[in-house]
Amino acid sequence: MRSILSFLGVSPAAAESGADTIHRIAAELDQLEPERARFVAAFAFVLSRIARADHEVTADEVAAMERLVAERGHLAPAQAALAVQMAKLQQQMFGGTDDFLVTRELARIATHEERLAIIDCLFAVASADRKILNAEADEIARIGRELKVEQSDLSRLRHAYREFLEARKGLAE
Questions:
Q1: φ and ψ at residue 161, rounded to 5 degrees
Q2: Cα separation of 129 and 106, whole Å?
């Protein structure tokens, strides 16, 4: 059985070398059912993918990711924070290589309703700073295709965040 740490590429030795708090949280994440751990890890990774779409991860985006991972992953805030930090590190190191693979795995294990919720969460992270840049919107569309979300569903979810879309700035309402 692979742990969430190994799925995210963090060796047990590296996890143990950190503070006791981080070690305890990592041990708690390892206690998740393997399928749930895979979902949480992939979900956090995909959220990090959006946060890095503009090459800058803001504190607001991190806070949004931690909140969403805690809520959707049914994790304690400290567990969610660790999952997000590990995912951010993996995204930074291996993002270009692993983006499609991780998203494809998420599409495989997520239900249709979860995939729609993931898209909504991606828009929530992108709009955490009150604007969705074109690079972020394009990346969400790409992830939507990889998750096999219908264009009509993607458009409906995008519409809910229209006030934050960079492409709409300056257009008459």
A1: -110, 15
A2: 26
Distinct helix (H) and strand (E) counts, the chain: 9, 0
pTM: 0.81
pLDDT tens for the chain, 173 residues long, are 455 555 555 555 544 433 455 555 566 677 788 888 889 989 999 999 999 999 999 999 999 999 999 999 899 898 899 899 988 988 888 777 788 888 999 999 999 999 999 999 999 999 999 999 999 999 999 999 999 999 999 999 999 999 999 866 554 44
CA atoms of 61 and 43, how far apart (whole Å) = 14
Ramachandran angles phi, psi of 7, nearest 5°: -60, -40
CA distance linking residue 76 with residue 37, whole number of Å: 14
Which amino acid, residue 42? A
How many Å apart are CA 48 and CA 125, to the nearest integer? 9
* Residue carrying the six token digits 């951010």: 88
Instruction: Supply 67's token pair.
Output: 């909140």
Instruction: Report how far apart the first and last C-alpha atoms of the chain are (Å, whole number).
Output: 53
CB count, 10 Å around CB of 83? 29
**Structure tokens belonging to residue 119:** 């898209």
Q: Residue 165 pairs with which residues in a beta bridge? A: 132
- Closest C-alpha among 161, 168, 163 to residue 64: 161
